[in-house]
Design brief:
Chain lengths: 113, 112
């Protein structure tokens, strides 16, 4: 069936560097792609989303890129901070499938001081 | 501004026991969801509801039942708990047409 997956399970970066977290998806009918951050012992927290008709969207220190040609999604975090250490999930949402969010497995980001 | 509140936060059950997890949201969201999260895995959808009085199955519904008698509440029931249901359970809610969900802080359930 359709699924959303992540290329790397762990990512370690130096404080101040930029981080890039990647995600592959397979449902070309998805309407939205969303990134969530989950800190230990907490529920996922919405970071940023992008509509399927866009290829880039920027937020505060974060940028999401969508490449529909190769069905690839990425999250870029600028000037990574220790507080960015968490597991990051990508998710996709298709209204023709009831609007449910389908999550990938997650990438654990570790920021070294 | 509570958002999504889950109770209880922790629970230990014996195999065969039953329990109900409660989710409450104060954002007037139409949609509500129950997910489970197992180690090394992403969140998997158990059941969801698109409005008061309606429920639907997700990816992994077996062994669970749900009810949405009031718009703000979504209950997840385990009739006969099994060790395979040991997991962290998350409730979420969203607006109709919204892209993102608001999640609760989770319920850690252990079945022994």
């Amino acid at each position: 069936g359709e699924s959303v997956g992540l290329h790397l399970p762990t990512l370690s970066v130096q404080e101040g560097d930029n981080s890039i977290i990647n995600c592959a998806y397979s449902n070309s009918a998805s309407d939205y792609f969303i990134w969530y951050k989950q800190e230990s012992g907490k529920g996922p927290q919405f970071i940023i989303d992008i509509r399927s008709n866009m290829d880039k969207r920027q937020g505060q220190r974060v940028t999401v890129l969508l490449n529909k040609t190769v069905k690839h999604l990425s999250l870029q975090i600028a000037a990574t901070q220790p507080g960015d250490s968490a597991v990051y999930f990508c998710a996709e949402k298709a209204y023709n499938q009831g609007g449910k969010l389908i999550f990938g497995q997650g990438t654990e980001l570790s920021v070294k001081p | 501004n509570a958002g999504v509140t889950q109770t209880p936060k922790f629970r230990v059950l014996k195999t065969g026991q039953s329990m109900t997890l409660l989710c409450a949201q104060d954002m007037n969201h139409e949609y509500m969801y129950w997910y489970r999260q197992d180690p090394g895995m992403g969140l998997r959808l158990i059941h969801y509801s698109v409005g008061e009085g309606t429920t639907a199955k997700g990816e992994v519904p077996d062994g669970y039942n749900v009810s949405r008698l009031k718009k703000q509440n979504f209950l997840l029931g385990l009739e006969s708990a099994a060790p395979s249901q040991t997991s962290v359970y998350f409730c979420a809610s969203s607006y109709l047409g919204g892209s993102g969900y608001t999640f609760g802080s989770g319920t850690r359930l252990t079945v022994v």
